[in-house]
Every structure is written in structure tokens, then in C-alpha cells.
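Hello,

Following up on my earlier ticket. Below are the two sequence lines again, exactly as submitted.
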Amino acid sequence: MENYSEELDGVFQALADPTRRAVLGRLGSGPASISDLAAPFAMALPSFMKHIRFLEDSGLIRTAKEGRVRTCSLERARFSVVEGWLSEQRAVWQARTDRLESLVLAREEFLRDQEKKEKDK
Amino acid sequence: MIQNFNPDLDLSISRIIRAPRAAIWHAWADKASFEQWWIPAPALCRVAAMDMRPGGAFETRMSENGGEFGPHLSACFLAVDEGSRIVFTNALTGGWRPAEQPFMTAVVTFSDHPEGTEYLAHVMHKSPDDRKMHDELGFFEGWGTVARQLAELVERRQ
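Thanks for your patience. The regenerated structure is below:
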């Protein structure tokens, strides 16, 4: 629960700024380079980079460098964190049930194979 | 046993698993199996205690990156009906000792189904009565709406 609060703090601080919201809005239509993202803003690049780093630290975007160009893209899964604590808990239990199911099914299949091998002997 | 479902505080996951009840029970009761599914990879899970009887300790520990294991869940079994039901809460720890930060009780039931087993997890959460939690919920409900709208905006642009 406490980790969850910290995560929320980061996400909400990231969303609290108009520049950062505009960047997220732009990234919604696909990945973009830092220079493309910075173009509409009347702000020095180092200041703009602070916003990018903030978004990256909050987990809302990820960046990757290829040659001289750094490209940013949206980390969609991150948005679910703000949809509410209960839906987060639901996702945890849903995924947990998925894993339980696949483990059980894999073991069942393994046992069936073993049985078949025994019979074939 | 579940008197009323509170949509604001409870969640319910139901799944038909194409395997016999005993197989699913084993995945719960066998520590080595349990460790494989309780926490998502790449994090690792270690069962520190799984004393499957009423009052028995149920404690899991987690390692994020293969390093040191830290606390994950510290709970107490309330009911254990072999092959059919497991109830635990983190409001208590082993031996019914009151816990520091309670927030949920889970009722997991296993019942026969023509296609295998119906697996049902019903998880009830604490009412956000106390001030801290209340403030936090109030805080993020407003923000949640803003963020949801933003996410929708972002999705639409695609």
C-alpha cells in the first residue's frame, strides 16, 4: 500500500504540469523524437529535458536512444495505476489466477504424458 | 458465507480451470508450486510460512531482482477446508495476533464444474474509514478522473 502511494505521487506530479500533459497527448499518436516534442514549446532544451526525465521517472513514458536521436513513447500500462486502487487489486488477482491456471494446466499435461509413456512401455 | 458484495470494496475473480480440484489445491498447498504463481516474474516469491489451518501463519516474501527478499504478505489463515476453501486475512498474523496494517480478507473457493473446477477468489477490503486512507482516496478519485480523461484522449488520437 505504501509503495502504491509513492507510485501515485510520482504519476500525479507528472500529470500536474501543462507541458508534460501536452507531451503525453502528443505521444498518444505515436512515438516521437525529443526535438519533435520540444518544437512547439518556447523553452530551452535543458528545461524541456527536465520534463522528459520527470515523465520517464514516473513511468508514464520510456525513452530509447538510437544514434543521435532519443525517441520517446508512451508506457500505456502506467495509466492504469491512477484508475483506482481497487482496479489495481483486481488486476493483481486476475493475473495471479492466470498464472495459477497455466501452472496447473502445464502440470496436468506433464502427468498425462508421463502416464502415456508408462502405458506405451 | 459472503453476506453482501460491496462493489466499492470487494473484488471477485471467477475462473473455470480445466483441471480437477485436487490439482488446483496442490498448486496452493505445495510451497514450491505456490511460489511459482503467487508473484509475477521476474520477481521471485518465497513462502516463509504456510501453516494451513485456522490461526496458522501465511507469509510470503518477495525479491524484485533476485537479490534480498523483503516483506510481501503477512497474513493468517482463518479457515482451511481441504480441497474446497481457503480463507485468510492480513488483519491478523500467525496465531491470531493483530497485524499492523490490515486491509483485506480473501475467500478462495474451489468447486466441481462439468469442465473441471470453478475457482473463485473473493477479496474484501477494509472500509476507508480512517482519515489517512480517506484523504488518499479522495485525493486520487479527483485525479483519477483527470488521468482517465487524459488516457482516453491519448487512446483516441491513435
